[in-house]
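Example complex used in Figure S2.
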Amino acid sequence: MIRVENVYKSFAGRPVLQDVSLTIHESSTQAIIGRSGSGKSVLMKHIIGLLQPDQGRVLVNHTDIGKISYGELRKIRRQFGVLFQGGALFDSMDSFENVAFPLRTFTTKTDQEIRQEVQTCLDLVQLSNVGSKSTSALSGGMRKRVALARAIALRPRYIIYDEPTSGLDPETSNTINELIKNLAHHLEITSIVVTHDMHSVLQIADHVAFIHNTRMHWTGTTEELHQSTDTVLRSFVKANEYVIGAQH
Amino acid sequence: MPQVVLRVAKPFMNIGRFTILMSSAFMSLRELKTYRQNTQIQMVRIGIESIPIVALAAAFSGAVTTVQTAYQLVSPLIPPKIIGAVVVPSLTMELGAVVTGFILSGRVGARIAAELGTMRVTEQIDALEAMGLNSIGYLIVPRVLAGILMVPVLYVAACVIGVLGGVAAAELTGAVSSPEFILGAREHFDIFGPYFGLIKSFVFGFLITAVSCHIGYFTEGGADGVGRSTTRAAVMSCVLILIADLVLAILLL
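Predicted assembly (501 residues):
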């Protein structure tokens, strides 16, 4: 379980997160939604300890990650897979090597075992034949899927998706959403999806947290989201529906 | 904090951040085994791949120094073999290390800053950290180690090729024959010269790679930020080489 407790963070005196609290339950899919610049990605970086809160704390499996050594933090991070917004694939390596990288670095598997494992991961993201392709030769959707294959290579307990569908066409977005759903189901992973794409949220999330003006404005289940009468939340959802409608 | 205070404090903040980064890199040396392969790759990129351009610069430096020395020492009272005695120490004590340093500031410093800067703005460094990898150990330690180990090697190559360039220029211009050039160089040879040059190249190797890593690692912004980091790394490396050259000369001579 991941708990974010009363987190406050500011950059150059400007607050980006204020008194934010959130509990993420095991084996569930938690969506964190909000406008661009509302602090979603900053919250995501706090959860894996890439940023430290000015106040408050983040607990991963009851461990306060702000109070442990860098070595211990790195061990905790190995329980996470992260899909960054742009994929963050290593451009000095081809697609295969990107997926193989965590396996080579953190396991003692043989080359043959690594090859099999990479192929399994690429199969899971429906990209069986891109192994030798340079990352620059991949489309946006393919890059995200290779990055997803890399994120699941070590079979993480938690996986964080930062804007998994941004910049993708609706069809590719659907493919990514399906993948997120399938991975959560097959690998029993706890998923955290940072997004402003409501279509994606409604398709994959069990729980939703809405950040507005740097504060946690609303939390609840996807069903509760449908019934919510909160005007700010309704306005955000409606604006999204309009955009989605326009896209289709 | 007022803008003026920030501007005044920025260089000190940078020095502090550089010190912390290098301390972290030093602490990561314990995990060197994990980054061994990356260190070997960087040794090839920084050292082996720089040989052609360093050789070219060294050969021309040796040749030009010979021609200019010959021009300045035209006198029936000065034996021509003195040209060798002037050119070789110039190369071993100054030109070999400084020319190599300047070439590497542009070639290696800019490359390191561009690589790390791009990795920073495309979240590749965050991805390494998120995987549980020590990004400083993985990215910075191999580059700085490769710089410290390979720049002295390039310095030796530059000196040898520089002397050969000098001999060739001496022969081609007829200023002095190669046996006389070598005789002059051997008669006035002082082993301190190459030692001094090696110490300088070791320091330059550290400065170029460490400063460029620091600038690249903390790049902010997009393509513009990477561009600024690349230029800054090359310029800062050159400036620090000049300062270190003077400091070492004062301290060791």
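The radius of gyration of chain B is 21 Å. Chain B has one domain: 3-252.
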